[in-house]
Amino acid sequence: MNKTIITVATTGAFPTKEHNPNIPLTPKEIANDVYECWQAGAAVAHLHMRDDNGNGTMSKEKFRETVELIRSKCDIILNLTTSGDLHATDETRMAHFIELKPEMASYDAGSMNWMHSGLFLNPPQFLESLGKTMLENGVKPEIEIFDAGMIYNTLYYMKKGVVAAPAHFQFVLGAAGGTAATVENLVYLKSLIPQDSTWSALGIGQGHLPILFATLALGGHIRVGMEDNVYYAKKQLATSNTQFVSRAVRLIKEANKEVATPDEAREILGLKKK
């Protein structure tokens, strides 16, 4: 299909109002932002929550409030993080999607040193439990890939039946401790996934536009938003997540492709509308 899915990652776990005063942090701010991004052309919303102090949290209550607000406004596909707090337990990383039954949730396919300051732990026992729990609850994993080893982990879990095929991969490039955001690395990672997979990619910070352009050229789907980049251009803070989505829409059309609607994205990703 000549359709490109735009995922908007509005918030993330780390950027603050000090980095960009326009980043949405509360459930109401996030829901309103997602609605505007849906109107602009986003088909998927990748959601992180913040506590009342602005820190990343896996609070089921925050997810519930935000999801209910979004579902009352539009039919965008919801993709909930399972990694919004480095100190969360295995149980709290899954409780929200067990209750809320989103169409998608993140599956970070391995452990890594995070930002040269801590450990992002996704040990084998957790990955098996996470995959099985997603299958039981009808939630499709978005397999987040920070380095090539995570692809091989995923292939192992696919053979075990923990992750179903066809899978959807999200290449996360430019995170400190992970793979650098270069076109060469993107091409290499893409070469490792099964041919029946769907895939998307993002570049963090200054890698944002090069990876976006390369992904479009290679036929992938794209992710934009302030989780990955608070600047719209050099020395120019983004005014909203909608600004990123609107640029993505223009670039997709300039590449002679079409922007996928949420229902078209469901067909591409093999999702059943909930």
Number of helices: 9
The outline comes out as globular
Mean pLDDT: 97
Report the major sheet. Answer: 8 strands, parallel, barrel
State the separation between the terminal residues, measured CA to CA.
23 Å
**How much helix is in the residues?**
25-40%
**Count of distinct strands:** 16
Helix and strand element order: EEHEEEHEHEEEHEHEHEHEEEHEH
> What is the CA-based Rg, rounded?
17 Å
Structural class: alpha/beta
Beta strand %: 15-25%
**Going across the major beta sheet, what is the strand order?**
2-3-6-7-10-11-12-13
Task: Describe this structure as you would to a colleague.
- By secondary structure, this protein is an alpha/beta fold.
- Helix content is 37%, strand content 21%.
- It is built from nine helices and 16 strands.
- The chain has helices at 27-40, 60-71, 95-100, 124-136, 148-160, 183-192, 208-218, 241-254, 262-269; strands at 3-4, 6-9, 44-47, 49-50, 56-57, 77-80, 104-108, 112-114, 118-120, 140-145, 168-173, 198-203, 221-224, 231-233, 236-237, 258-259.
- The chain has an eight-stranded parallel β-barrel with strand order 2-3-6-7-10-11-12-13, surrounded by seven helices.
- Helix 1 packs parallel to helix 2 (60-71) and helix 1 packs parallel to helix 8 (241-254).
- The relative contact order is 0.18.
